[in-house]
Every structure is written in C-alpha cells, then in structure tokens.
Design goal:
- This protein is mostly beta strands.
- The chain has three helices and 22 strands.
- The longest helix is centred in the first third of the chain and has 12 residues, at 7-18.
- The two termini are 28 Å apart.
- Mean pLDDT is 88; it is low at 5-32 and 235-241.
C-alpha cells in the first residue's frame, strides 16, 4: 500500500530542493545540488456504465479499479531525481490524490541506484517497480492506452511494487541480453503481510536486437513468488468488498510466471513520421491458502488452490506526425478449486460468490484509442472500450484524457 505524505511537508521539501543554493555564514553559494523535478498532469472525462471492477475468479488488490463516471483527475505524479554523487543516483515519485476531501502524496517509488559499478552490473535499493514483465516498470502516464491491461489489475493490483533490492547485469554480447533478480518484502499484492518482511523473490531475463534497419524486437521472461501470513482481498466477483465484510487469504503462497514480447517498426529507423509497435504479455498465477470470509457475525472458511491466466495483445500505429491509433484486446481465465468448506450463517454458494473464488467467467475487453501528441510533453487521447466481465454484464467505457508533462522529461524505455 502506498504511504501518504502530507502535502505541506511535500511542498516544503520541493521548495528546499528546488531553491538551487546553499547558505553558509550568511552568504549564498553556488548550486551544488540541482535535481530534476517534474510534474505529470492527468485529467479525464469518463462515460461508464458501471464503475465497479468485476473480475470473476480473481481477488483484487492494490489499485485495481475502474474510474468514476464524469470529470476526474487521473494519475497526477510528482518526481524528483538527481545523481547523489559519482557513485549513486536517487529518485522519488509520488502520486497526488484527493481522498475524502484531503490532498495527499502517495509514495510510489523511492530508491537509490548505483552508477559506474562496472562490468554491466547495476544495483538498486529502496521502493521500486519490479523489473518483471514489460509494462510493470513503466508509469501509467507513459502507457499507450488510458488504462492498464486487465491482466495487470488482476495479477498485480496495477503494478508489482515493493521495497527491497534489485540487481541487474547486461551481458557483453552483440545481441542484447540482460538478467535481473530481486529480493523484496513480499508484503505488497499479490503477496501479503509476513513476519520476515523479506519473502518476495523475482527473476527476469530480457533479450532483443535489430532486424535490418527498420525493425527491432525484445523478448522477456519473468518469475515472481512470495509467501504470506495474511492477504486482504480488496474485491470479489461483484465489485468491491462489501461494507462490514472481511475477505482474507491466510498462510498463503503465490507465484507468477510471465512472458512479454515487443516489436517495433519505423521506415529506415526514423520514427518521427510514422511507426508501428506490436506488444503482448502473458501471465500465469498459481496461489493457495486458507480463504476466510466474514460478514457481521457470520463467518466461512475453506482451503483454496487457484490457477489464473491472462494476456493482452495490442498494436499502436503512428500514421502521421503527432497522430496515433491503437487497438488492444485483454483476456482473463480463472480455474480455482475450493475444498473443506465450513461456515456459520454463510452457505457454500454465498461464500464462493462473495469471496470471488468460485464464480465462473472469462473476462475480456476490447479497446480502441486515438491520440494527438504535438510534442513529447503533451498528449490528448480519446478511447472507447467494451468490457465483458464474463458474468452477465457488458460495460461500455468512453474516456477523453489529457496528459501533460511539466519539467524534466526522462527517456522512454524500449
């Protein structure tokens, strides 16, 4: 869960760091610390049939949700980064949100990373987006669609982010080849609270290269696992958790295996006029534990063993400078086994429905978008999605979105 930071404290920190000078003996000296500061502005209007995210067979967590209908702010983000010295680089990013009428900063990433370690090695420590998959490490404002693929909401609650240490190594080969490993607390979804606070483990490998002068590709394989004592489920088959109800998975373990592929084409390598990107990811999640559902004074519990799968496939084509069109298809499947049921005031059918573990359905979604980007710093997007939750409901979603970048603008990943 993200950590709220009072807005007044955040503003004070920005003022101090952004002042660009140090004062000594009543005298202002030259700037010795000049961080890069940026702000992402995300606003939108949404026309949606139902704002509850319903994914039968999946217990949701993290930031998995659908937008409310009407005007709203999206993923506004503040970031500050700098080289600490010639050995370390530091970065902090926070989402700016309004909750219950209060404006807060919610910590997303806060880490240091080595510089010039040599031999292709890099070490990162702190809170960071995991290196698994392709989209996981890319912030929402840099995605090609107005929302994340369903598989990321279902498997990771939006993004897999945790606190720990990551090491990466780029092999000295003509063909791009990179290996990475992480040890993290394992307390963030799809993991959960654990006594050791070091139960998250991830591995990932990426390779890629060029095909002539006009095309390039990248292929990745990922694995994540964690054990936990308690994991709270933030949703069930019919939307968010009901008021007065608790939905938990106890003494559980989870592992996720994924594969991702990206292909890019631009005539003679020049993407300014026109280009095309094909992108796909596929994940399989296995998890088990003791499921416990409580509503008022009624309780139910059972042993749970689930296998869940999901993928998305998308293509984005820039048909003229500043203009792009994209098409994406998302699909999910869940195969859950629930045994040894016992309940007091809740029968097995109600338990399976309310816990989200026993309702059958294969959710899918088709999205088409058109966006206009006069520069790297601004984008206006129109998107239409048809979402079938696989359980008696189809949801049409129209989104008009703007994304504006103020301040420094880092390079995009492949």
């Amino acid at each position: 869960m993200k950590s709220p930071i009072p807005l007044t404290l955040a503003v004070s920190v920005v003022a101090l760091l952004g002042s660009g000078y140090a004062q000594s003996a009543g005298k202002i000296s030259g700037s010795e610390f000049n961080p890069a500061v940026s702000l992402i502005l995300d606003g939108r209007y949404t026309d949606i049939d139902n704002s509850e995210l319903e994914l039968p067979g999946f217990q949701l967590g993290g930031e998995a949700e659908l937008p409310e209908s009407g005007f709203s702010t999206g993923h506004n983000e503040f970031a500050i980064s700098a080289n600490v010295d010639d050995k370390f680089y530091g970065l902090m990013t926070s989402a700016i949100v309004i909750e219950d009428g209060e404006t807060e900063f919610e910590l997303e990433e806060a880490y240091i990373e080595t510089l010039k370690l040599g031999s292709g090695f890099t070490i990162k420590g702190g809170r960071f987006f995991s290196g698994i998959g392709y989209l996981n490490g890319i912030h929402d404002h840099a995605h090609d669609f107005a929302d994340r693929p369903l598989v990321y909401d279902a498997m990771f609650g939006g993004h897999l982010v945790d606190t720990g240490i990551q090491t990466r190594w780029v092999a000295p080969t003509d063909l791009f080849l990179s290996f990475g490993a992480e040890v993290t607390a394992g307390s963030e979804f799809p993991g959960g609270d654990n006594v050791d606070n070091n139960n998250g483990l991830a591995f990932f490998v990426k390779t890629g290269g060029d095909i002539g002068v006009s095309s390039s590709w990248q292929l990745g394989v990922s694995y994540y696992e964690s054990e936990f004592d308690v994991r709270e489920a933030g949703g069930h088959a019919h939307g968010g958790e009901e008021e007065g109800a608790d939905n938990e998975l106890l003494n559980g373990e989870v592992d996720v295996t994924g594969i991702d592929f990206v292909y890019k084409w631009a005539p003679n390598g020049n993407s300014k006029e026109t280009n095309f990107k094909l992108q796909a990811e596929y994940f399989v999640k296995n998890e088990n534990g003791g499921s416990e559902f409580t509503e008022d004074t009624n309780t139910a519990e059972a042993d749970y063993d689930g296998e869940q799968k999901g993928f998305y496939l998308q293509g984005v084509y820039q048909f003229k400078p500043a203009w792009r069109v994209g098409l994406r298809y998302d699909h999910l499947e869940a195969d859950n086994i629930v045994t040894n049921f016992s309940g007091s005031g809740i029968d097995e059918e109600e338990f399976l429905e309310e816990s989200g573990l026993g309702v059958e359905g294969d959710p899918d979604r088709t999205s088409i978008m058109l966006d206009y980007s006069p520069s790297h710093f601004s984008r206006i997007r129109l998107q239409f999605s048809q979402f079938d939750n696989g359980h008696e409901e189809t949801n049409d979603i129209i989104t008009l979105q703007y994304i504006m970048s103020l301040g420094s603008h880092g390079a995009h990943t492949f």
